[in-house]
Amino acid sequence: MTAEDPKQEVKPGPPASDRGVYGISVASELSFVSEQSLRLYERHGLLTPARSPGGTRRYSADDLVRIQRISELAAAGVNLAGIARILSLEDRNAALDERNITLEGDN
Fold it and tell me: Which of 31, 61, 68, 106 has its CA 20 to 30 A from that of 6?
């Protein structure tokens, strides 16, 4: 049972990849990116970590993958505005790929 839904069973194992479980200090340590940089990325809309009821940032495994991609682009010399555009296009491309797979399955 969970606090959100008492009828829902709690399954053992790692959390879902989109569930925010890491605080900013842990996310910083795991990604080798400073806490200040993570806050900067959030201000620029590159990241949107979940928030606890008290307002604490909670990063997911998916967020850590995105931080890695941001780091790769920054190391290649892309500025934050360029990174935002690239990530937006990559997200859209992934959504279109999923839609194509669904449509092909329907045919």
Answer: 61
Q: What is the pTM of this model?
A: 0.79
Task: Confirm whether 17 is domain-assigned.
Answer: no
Condensed to tens digits (0 to 9), the pLDDT of residues 18-47 reads 888 899 999 999 999 999 999 999 999 999
pLDDT in tens, 56-101: 999 999 999 999 999 999 999 999 999 999 999 999 999 999 999 9
Structure-derived torsion over alpha carbons of residues 30, 72, 19, 51, reported in degrees to the nearest 10: 80
Enclosing domain of residue 29: 24-106
- Output the DSSP codes for 11-63: PPSSPPTTS--B-HHHHHHHHT--HHHHHHHHHTTS---EE-TT--EEB-HHH
In a domain, 7, yes or no: no
